[in-house]
Amino acid sequence: MLKKFWMYYKRRDKFLRYTINNFLFFEVYFAVQIAVTIGLFAFGIRYSILQGIGLAVIGFMFLSFLYDYLVARAKDKLSQGFISFLSTFAGFYAINKNVMKSLKETCHFIDEPVRGIVLKNLLLYEKGQLVYEELFARMANEIDIKSYRNFFMLLLTADTTGADITSITRRLIGTEQEKNRAMVQLRSSISYGLIMIFIMSIITLYMFNNALSTQQITQGITPATFAFVMSAVIFALLLGKVMSKWLEGE
């Protein structure tokens, strides 16, 4: 379970490193997350063991939600550049009539981490360390963005069967343009909802912590009330993590 948890976040940290800060990789973020969790526990336990545990759990969940939100925004930004990627590739393929050469030249005009992943795997293929089918499968899995995954697997099928790649790419561009127009409002609504969850979670925790710091109020708070408030905040953060997936377009 812990290994799956670790690998899940390791697959996603490339988006934060390349779109936010090269030093913001998962090991650093996770260390900060643990440090904040311990700090919140130490702060809360001064008042009660329940408050210490509650603040520690909420703190850990909140930073986990923030991580997923940042990754979702980064992936959404890269997804919005997919049409540009398709158009650039289509232009080079119309000239070269060669998938490998066209992909390599396209990489000069696209952003990280897509550029680095494509170039790395093309190099491995040229060195004979990957067969043709593995090349496209690895690029699709490592990029981990639905639109790119589908394109690379479709490109593999089209190239091996002799289908008209130029025509397929043009149809994909039209489909993606329609999809983007439909996603504009949804993307805005999801982003707004995530921001509101973020803000309301902070406000709720701040107000509840102040209440627990007041002796007269603390005496009137039962364990059931405490558990209800903590559960409500955790549920909101879990909902935010699910909504982040929608923002990614997965």
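The record above closes out task 2.4. Task 2.5 opens with a second protein, given below.
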Amino acid sequence: MALTQKDLTISKPLSPVYVLFGKQSYLIQLIKDKIINQALTQEEKEFNLSSYNMEETPIEAAIEDAETLPFIGEKRVVVIENPYFLTSERTKSKVEHDLKQLGRYLEAPSPDAVLIFIAFYEKLDQRKKVVKQLTKIGTTYELSQLSDDLLFKLLENIALEYDANYTKEGHEQLLALVGPQLSYLANEVKKFALYCGKDRPIDKHIVNELGARSLENNVFSLVDMVMKQQTANAYQLLNDLLKQKEEPVKILALIARQIRIVYQVSLYQNEGYTQKQMAAKLKLHPYAVKIAAGQAKTFKRQDLERALSQCTEADYQMKKGSMEKTLVLELLIHKIACHK
């Protein structure tokens, strides 16, 4: 389920244990800082804030710290990073952890301490006893999917720190340009805000002028040009990517991926799925589904099926080496655009 603004509110009394997990590293850092700032003053952080990396230090050291009375103030905060023992993932770490001691602590956590587990993992292993204990005694945040409104609000707040105005049209253009990864979006908004200040709103023109494009989003634009039969622009963008030493095989794979997404969205639309439901099924950001839905309207289903077949043929030609890779991509663009 997508997070909302209410989900990110940290209020007192604080939980004795927090578990922050997911792939949104920026958001995890944001919530961690909120918890710490609720628990400790700036002066208290020097004495009562500590951090332990579970790939280097046994959990017993962190627990012993949590059981130590605060030096100044009411709380001690212990941050536990990389707790791989909460997942099914393998690690090269040779550190041995006494999880029974952690379990005993969780049965009666110190009222003077706040434990924060920072887990940059997509999932926790719910079969493990320690995970069940943490879920029962603590507060868990799955920081992965954000609602559109919350994503805009978070980025708007970043712009406001620099007295800049982050607009909705700028937001939509930025999502189309770089995708939904929050840490990357935040860095881009900071850059725009420093440039614009109070004098100019962060609109789509600023985003297009200053925004950094990833290969994936450049290919997204390329596919959009092909579907709109803007072949001259598509060829120019392809040439620019090749000049940047991007691999033709990787470009082809991303073209095929984007067309496959449009095809899947087309199928789900015919079955009556909402864009929100499609985003959940395809594990995509809702805005990416919105764009794909618009692209699906410009191509018939048989044209999308043909385009996917042409991508497979182009992949075979590249791997076989029967034709120069750049020419394979150029012919693919021509075939897809002309069979509309």
